[in-house]
Amino acid sequence: MVKVLISNATRLHAHRHAYALQQAGFLKYFVTSIWYKKSHFPYRLIPYLPNALQRKLQSFLSKRTHADILEEYVVEVKGAECIRLVLVEALRIRKLRRQIMLWQKKSFDKSVAKIIKKTKPEIFVGFEISCAKSMKAAQEVGAVTVLDMAGLEHDFALRKRSALGPPLRAHEANLKRQKTLELARADHILCVSELARNSLLEAGIAPQKIHVIPLGLNQTIFSAKARIWDRADQPFCVVYAGNLSLAKGVFDLVQAFKKAAIPNSELHLIGTLSDIKETDLKGDNITIFPFMSAEALAAKFRESDVFVLPSYLDSWGQVIPEAMSCGLPVIATDMCGASDLITPETGHVIKAGQSDRLTEILRDMAKHREVLSVQGRNGVQAVSHLTWEIYAENICKFHASLTKGVEIEGHES
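Structure (tokenized):
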């Protein structure tokens, strides 16, 4: 049976990919940076730390684990990631965040290349910005190389985010070199949306190399079952979840909400401040919430009227199907891959940066709240096919096709 080594320098959806391979008996190793193994050093020391530090660490580590992946398959390469966390979080060297992240991923890449040379997998799966050297090592041992691309093609992304200001030239040049090598060395490229696929086609990538497999979601947690559909006697609540950054269009949303001036309305922003100051987001009836667990986020969605993701660049936008699954109509930009899920029956798709259009839509939705429950119910149906079980089936079909030469059912390539 084919054996796959998959690596990711942080997490993204790599743990879902790895778990699918484990279930099918395809997984050789899952190489990552930090993985929470409670019984292993140094994690077993956490109960002896001060309570406040325990809570902070466990909040972080809860995102770096997956209960169903067997520890015997997980290989940690955590040195560079620990240094990055100290520099960015403890020392708060924010201005160098992107350069430090790139250094961490390239250091991780070198370590994975050494592991590949020793273990000789038949298929290697790497995630972008952290697998150029790994891909080369995989080719040298005769492995099929797969790039699981969570983002968008580099030049396409730069063009689309030009409205946010000039890029860091040296940093972008380094990023482009890394991504160009990875694309060239990949035998196959997995992406999560048609937006990502189109960005690759525009760059001249051969269509037969590209495979679209959308992500799933946990529909037990993100469910509309406990939702109260008639919210006419409640404040009109607009909700956003994700990094509070310019690239996510959060500032545009705040300005649109203020301009809409909807009586008895609220805007709830859920996430961590990135390149926006909290003072820039303040206003009447605007509340900022810190990172929430999946369960708390789903509860917040069920207590809201509309979800907005005004992103300038998002290859997928997982919060879109999660909000829809909770019964929320959604407003998103055409630069969100998951906007393909949205129709006039479930919400609105606008051009990125169209703050005035967003204002109009919010006012209209507030005036016709009776329509929102219809759109919300339609949204639940529209995303009912997006489960992690179906994602796992599609991932395993893809890997089986690499050795059998068969097409992947239900996916264009």
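The chain has two domains: 4-216+387-404, 236-382. The longest helix spans residues 97-119.
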